[in-house]
Amino acid sequence: MLVQKYKDMLSGKSVIRELSEFATARGNEIGYENVFDYSLGNPSVPVPDDVTSQVIYYATMEAGTTHGYSPSLGITSVREAVAESLKDRFGLPYRKEHIFMACGAAGALAHAFRLVTEPGDEILTFAPFFPEYRPYVDLTGAVLKVVPPDTDSFQINIERFCEMLSPKVMAVLINTPNNPSGVVYSAETLRKLADILRERSAEYGHDIYLISDEPYREIVFDGVEAPCVSAFYDNTIMCYSFSKALSLPGERIGYVAVNPNCKDAELMVNMCGQISRGIGHNCPPSLFQLVTARLLDKTADLSVYETNMNILYKELTALGFSCVKPGGTFYIFPKALEEDAKVFCRKALKYDLILVPGDTFGAPGYFRMAYCIDTEKVERSLEALRRFVREEYT
User: Fold this and answer.
1) pLDDT (tens digit, 9 = 90+) per residue, 135-154?
2) What is the side-by-side strand order in the sheet with 331-332?
3) Residue 59's CB: how many other CB atoms inside 10 A?
4) What is the pLDDT of residue 63?
5) DSSP letters of 191-234?
6) Which residues contact 93 (CB under 8 A, 6 or more apart)?
């Protein structure tokens, strides 16, 4: 007998993926260069040359060295390199004992959730949020609850957060820089959040963990500070992916970094090794563990994302859209020109504009544009956007 919950999930497929598939099909009809596909957050800039050279270097070594299973917690030299990089960058005393190599940020989150929650426990996150957090959390047996957004700034809605905190909350999940808003949580926001978590942990008599999902950490625009989340709160579990900074989403490589000041930090990393036995996220690719360890201070040329953001922000605001200016990522999250963003995005399809409604992000009435596409295509999309607004809303 097939498991009903997974059958039920078939009726709730990712809207992002469905729109991406629509864009591909439409591209087969009219040429993909004529489809302004802002659906999928797939990095568009090439990997750094150093990635290619390191892949060649390691791929020509003995197969057992490069292609064999890694130790359960990750290759020791890689964990040491990651810890040293984090220590140098953020001033926290990371050692390899605080690092667990994972299959991207999704794999890192899968371990983090299971580290600190039992079935029935609650995890709070903040709208707007990445929709896949729901299945990530639900399938652990924990319960995801969403704090409504502060749509003026897309910083944390502190008042509603305090109302929703309860003794059942074992973890708080944040994503900064944020998908879908592009907003970077400020030091003031993180300080308030940390103060509340310390206060409520003491009141409830148990630790509340802060799980920080950070795949966009390196994509921050000029003049915007991206504070280190772990510096504000000891019980922080950092979940990182090299997918965005190095343009390596298909290689599925990242890590869990438990704050060295967290109680039982080393035990938690060892527990990740046991969690991996049960969920199959064990032994991430040895080749890309070794490659990324050589490139911890490198990124792809991320400047194109800021260029694209500035082009779109200027045009959207000129057309009358209300929009919080992104501080990073490759997403922008304007308010639709009518109450129902799903209707708005359906109308946009007539103009070959592929936009994602904000409902599944926890912010109805907004829509996301993933502008990780060529700047030339962004510029060509502006006329389609103007025509859409002119013909449908003026």
Assistant:
1) 999 999 999 999 999 999 99
2) 331-332, 367-370, 356-357
3) 13
4) 59
5) HHHHHHHHHHHHHHTS--EEEEE-TTTT-B-TT-----GGGT-S
6) 87, 260
Q: Which residue ranges of the chain lie beneath pLDDT 70?
A: 62-65
Q: How far apart are CA 85 and CA 94, in angstroms?
A: 9
Distance CA 360, CA 129 (A): 8
Take residue 345 and report the two structure tokens written for it: 């995005």
Which tokens sit at 26? 């439409």
Domain that holds residue 248: 49-293
Measure the CA–CA gap between 176 and 155, rounded to whole angstroms: 10
CATH number, domain containing residue 372: 3.90.1150.10
d(CA 292, CA 289): 6
What is the Cα–Cα distance from 273 to 384, expressed in whole angstroms?
A: 50
User: 């990750």: which residue's tokens?
Assistant: 74
> What is residue 69's DSSP assignment?
P
- On whether both 39 and 183 belong to a single domain, the answer is no
What six digits make up the tokens of 322?
């209300």
Q: What is the dihedral of CA 28, 31, 34, 40, to 10 degrees?
A: 50
Q: How far apart are CA 216 and CA 245, in angstroms?
A: 7
The predicted pLDDT at position 9 comes to: 87
Would you mind telling me the total number of residues written for the chain in this entry? 394
Q: Which of 13, 39, 14, 12 is nearest to 25 (CA)?
A: 39
Q: Are 256 and 272 in contact (CB under 8 A)?
A: yes
pLDDT of residue 66: 86
E-assigned strand segments in the chain: 36-37, 99-102, 122-126, 143-147, 169-175, 209-213, 236-241, 254-258, 331-332, 353-354, 356-357, 367-370
CA distance 181 to 128: 7
CB 74, CB 99: distance < 8 Å:
yes
CATH of the domain at 267: 3.40.640.10
pLDDT for 64 equals 64
Where would I find the H helices in 319-374?
341-349
pLDDT of residue 8: 86
How many domains are contained in the chain?
Answer: 2
Among 305, 6, 322, 308, CA closest to 153: 322
Q: Report d(CA 104, CA 217) in Å as an integer.
A: 14
Amino acid 380 reads R
